Amino acid sequence: MKKLGLFYLAVRNIRRKLFRTVSIMMSVAVVAGTLFSATMVIYSVKRSIAVGTERLGADILVVPADAETKARGVLVSGEPSTFYMDRSVLDKVKAVEGVAQVSPQVFIESSSFSCCYVGNAMLVGFDPQTDFSVKSWLADFSIKEFGPDDIIAGRGIPTMVGRTLKFYGHDFNVVGVLAQTGMTFLDSSAFIRMDAAYRMAEESAKKAVKPITVTPDQISAVLVKVAPDYTPQRVAVKINYAVDGVKSIPSDEVIATVKDQLSKLLTYLLTIGGIVWVMALLLIAVVFSMIVNERQREIGLFRAMGAKKGFMFKLLVTEAALLTTAGGVVGVALGGIMVFSFKNLITTQLKVPYLWPSTAFIVELLAGCILVSLVTGVLAVLYPAALSARMEPYNAIRKGE
Fold this sequence. Notes:
Layout: H1 6-16, H2 18-56, E1 60-64, H3 68-77, E2 85-86, H4 89-94, E3 99-109, E4 122-126, E5 150-153, E6 164-167, E7 170-177, H5 184-187, E8 189-193, H6 194-207, E9 218-219, E10 221-226, H7 232-242, E11 246-250, H8 251-294, H9 296-304, H10 309-341, H11 343-350, H12 359-389, H13 393-399
Parallel strand pairs: 4-8, 5-7
Antiparallel strand pairs: 1-10, 1-11, 2-9, 3-4, 3-10, 5-8, 6-7
Helix pairs in contact: 1-10, 2-8, 2-10, 2-12, 8-12, 9-13, 10-12
């Protein structure tokens, strides 16, 4: 009698019709895979932006007006770029109402020649006297003072603490390697003191094949912290109005830019997922309605042997639950493989940052997608299962002959 249990019978019925079984499983797998991969991508990008923005530590980034596109490219996709403006902008920005703190930075793109340890990386020079971004990281590395030739490398630069990195013929000591943020601007950049950057630029004329043209009276950007009673958007407008030749980029705008880039993709994926989900519901409902018609004699015999009305209902629900749960497992597995395999393509084509979610989130998402698959099967089979439960044994056996 053990072999004739509900689970055993459900498995036997599923195995009898292989093509039908695979069709149902794959339709549910598409739904689960789309839901899983879309959620993974969107959450990973948002998490990367949140971590990167927190690491950056600035409410507003002020850059030359003609370099706004380059600056956004640096922040969002980490494209190495150099642009400069006069240092006098620093004092002008500091005088704007609502500005609490300012700190300059200078950007230098590393060369692909032998003078640099790694090419096409961003060297970011900061001012130790006014900095409120890089200096906040020092506690992570148990560093009290950032020396004139010290350097903090992003996770994307192949190095480790204690090694020496050479850029434009100048040697720097690696005192820290940042945790991954998913933002290429941080992961593929190296942070040095501003005076070291200018000194490196001066020495590059003799030590490097390609000299650096930046001078001490030039900076690339001004990082701004906004006073408590002001919003970044409001202060950004004030800076744009008060200081000629600059463009203020609030951190929130960077997030909005990425969201705009993802909106079409998200809409596309969710539309496909919704259509496939409806089709899966209809497909499963139709298939199990056919199953009820095909198995009327079987239903009647079970009832004649003493099975209660709810037995066939439970049997069909169990079959649907097993099929759709298996489809959900296949779907999230394929979705995970797709996201993992095409991670680099996602970041390069969409030009968005990407940071893997935590293990806890992935587990919760897996469980959620599989649960959606299970619910899909149960909802779709409710009517056919209820129909089977209402069949009278004698009539069912006669119709099934």
